[in-house]
Amino acid sequence: xxxxxxxxxxxxxKDNKEVQEIRRKYLPHEESKLEELKRLDSIxxxxxxxxxxxxxxxxxxxFGLGLxxxxxxxxxxxxxxxxxxxxxxxxxxxxxxxxxxxxxxxxKTKEQYAPRILELTAELTNENNxxx
Length: 132
Description:
This protein is mainly α. Helices cover 79% and strands 0% of the residues.
């Protein structure tokens, strides 16, 4: 008596979808043109933000320290008032230059990535127009 017994199990649609999602994580990822365009646009839009925030927040903190000294919350005497006013001016300068630094870094990054972004948009719009 020779019996070949085999068991075949098929995944359900839900299980198959989950298996495919796990498999996709481990396959090498090739970036599409649209994904590259979105990534480059995100880089340009977020450029300069960290630099300007650091300078602006630093300026606010220095300004606050100067305000505390000038109002004699910290320290007392004429030296505290004068140094507080000077720190307040330095802090104000930091706050004022934060936005121009953001614009400068943004425009430099935009200039750097503009040719590739324009090339990708031209390719994608031509591909979409030819498909219609």
